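Input/output pair, single chain:
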Amino acid sequence: MQNANVRGIVLMVVAMAGFAIEDLFLKYLSVDVPAAQIMLITGFGGMAVMIVAALVTGSPIFTAKLWNRHVIIRTLADLFGSIFFVWALVLLPLTLLSSIVQVIPLTVTAGAAIALKEPVGIRRWSAIIVGFIGVMIIIRPTTDGIQIGAILALVMVVCLTVRDLATRQMQVDLPSITLSVYAFLAFGLAGVISLSFDATLVPLTTQQAMWFGFAILFATFAYFCIVISTRIGAASVVAPFRYSRLIFALILAMTFLGERLDTITVVGIVLVIGSGLYTFWRENRVRPAPQ
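Output:
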């Protein structure tokens, strides 16, 4: 069991590195490629890879279980979350966006308490409040308001919180690869919807086509690593290592994009991650032991 957990941790960290590298390539592409086109190519390209993976592994692509209410809500939340994520990626530094994303475990805990009536004690509520303060420190609203990119990022957080809450409520047994097919489909459809706001499509250079290929490669590889990680490792052990994505994102953004963090932003990041880790630790302490 110990060795399985170690392998699960390694795979989770590798997956987070993969997602961070994908974000870096998408950030590069966002300079010259419209957001809608980024979503179209990455979404449908990733979907094609996942369909091949589903066929190889024998996972169903079409099944009546997909018409479950919570599966539909999950897919729609993924779709709109993708729209706001890419538009926020266009407008915000990668370091800032990656930091804001880390608040999602806290919003899921708060949402579960409010919408699903899951018990959340004063300690976890206190941690959630501290985490939200951390987000406010990161985005630093002024008397002129909050910059539009930060608003889009916060709306994305709401969408992905709904997605994760819907996932918790799913009673159907669907393979992770099947769900991944529709996650990428949602990303592609987000591009279709975005075309109604900006129908501009540009021809890709050879370098841009390669960047798209690498983004899709790392994204799908990361999904596979997460699937294996959650299967072989205990969730309570491997899940906290999702925060390693921020570490990779910060290193990549500072190295390749020339982004820098000031002291105030670092304080906000520490509050968000510290609150998230504490909340996760408390959830595992108060969770009833399996019979």
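The chain has twelve helices and no strands. Residues 1-33+202-260 form one domain.
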